[in-house]
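Extended Data, record MFS-type transporter pigP
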Amino acid sequence: MASTSNTDRVIDAGMIKKAHPEQTPPDVSHEGDVATEKGDSDGVEQAAPTGPTDGTPWVTGIKLVMIMSGITLVCFLMLLDTSIISTATPRITSQFHSLPDVGWYGSAYLLASASLVPLTGKIYQNFNTKWSFVSFFAVFELGSLLCGVATSSKMLIVGRAVAGMGGSGIQNGAFTIIAGCVPMQRRPALTGLLMGFAQLGIVIGPLIGGAFTQYTTWRWCFYINLPIGAVVGLLLFFVHIPEQLPKPKGISVVHIILRKLDLVGFVLFAPAAVQFLLALQYGGNKYAWNSSVVIGLFCGAGATFVCFILWEWYKGDDAMIPYSMICRQTVWTSCVVYGFLMATLLVASYYLPIYFQAIKGVNAMLSGVYILPSILSQSALAIISGALVGRFGYYLPWSLAGGIVSSVGNGLLTTFTPSTSVGKWIGYQILLGAGRGAGLQMPIIAAQNNLPPPLIPVAMALIMFCQSFFGSTFLSYADVIFTNSLRNKLKEYAPEVPPESIIVAGATAFRKAVPADQLPGVLKAYSKSVDYVFYLAVGAAVATFVFSCGMGWKDIRGNEPPQPSGDEKV
């Protein structure tokens, strides 16, 4: 758990050689975690470079500020885009008369993004990091433009899918850029800074969306990305972003696409992911879980995924998701930990507003304000924990502490009732957010500090996929738990109220359909059902603590390569 084995080092050298055959792999017969290579002239062993490989020094000063500002704004916009549409959806469905399409406004983005994420790792591994990142962001902006000018519901769905394709490579690219710009001990602080500010987009999305919808038009929920995108373009266009690993030279783009991106693996993986996520989307909503459609989607996803695994095994280290990498304990535990943490975040982000709107009776805008304590404490701890990891070197204690505090915070949410005081729901949320913030970036730091540079983009892509996969799965489980619990609890606390009428009415309109004498019972049933959903989040938080133990005890300060010399290109 503490250090990389000799076998892993040999695997790393082989994978580096296969990924970049024109490069001489480093000599791996050494002690410790940092690979070494022998100089051609004097035979002196030197640390293998894990920073810029294009002769530039680490990025500092105003150039680093410009790069960090640019990628943070991009990640902020991406997370804003996932939540801003929620308050605009009623107005959109009214204009397009498209109530049956509501689910597709979110799932079109998710399906496109999740199916492309693993491929983005190979793209960043083989193409210029800066222009790959800018290209993904440009596709995201194109999707936003299509949504803004949409003349029909179908056009809006297509725009959301295009935006999802662009969004698939944004977070991966941001972490890859940070890895190439600064030395090891500075990465945790910058990663925490990026995640802390970017995640504000999740909470202010409904506020901004509600304001646009009420005072201008819902189209500005998408137009807002365009002027900010222009600012990002100016910040990044004139700044040189160093490469963390050498990219293939003298090889045509067509050759890279055909030989290095593992398109067959992508063609197998994408439909497997789409079928699985569609089954989760349809199950219990459009179709029953035991319907032929849902069962067929699950079976199709399973069969296609088996074919994908066999192909990846055949491809070996050239695969889209190399088997030898996923077998590394640090990698797969980091993926699982990040997935469970994101599941707790998404469950709370969806069901805390339901608690405030349905049970406390506030509007959508105010419910967004009421969940600020968890998001602000999460952002603050993300920044603080990242800085302290960079200062003291160890990420594992923060991940373990984050799992414990997040478990306690989610556990306290299960005590919510219609009469829970303001002080309690603020304090509980602060604790919950602090736990998430302390641990959220630790899987990324662990992967970056336990893998050779050529594998970092692939690992980041895998972690980002787990974010979508675990999030979608847990939200589907949460929906099943909430709906079934609400039916049962309504029979217990409000037996005279038909359960289906409450479910169909929705979280904000059921009060108008319930007799005054039955409302307290309905509110209690709603509250108990939300509590049961938070039990699911408790389980996910406990799992983050358990799997964090496999991420390794490592001092990242001892993994510092010498700073390259040379003039920085701009």
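Summary. The first helix runs from residue 6 to 19.
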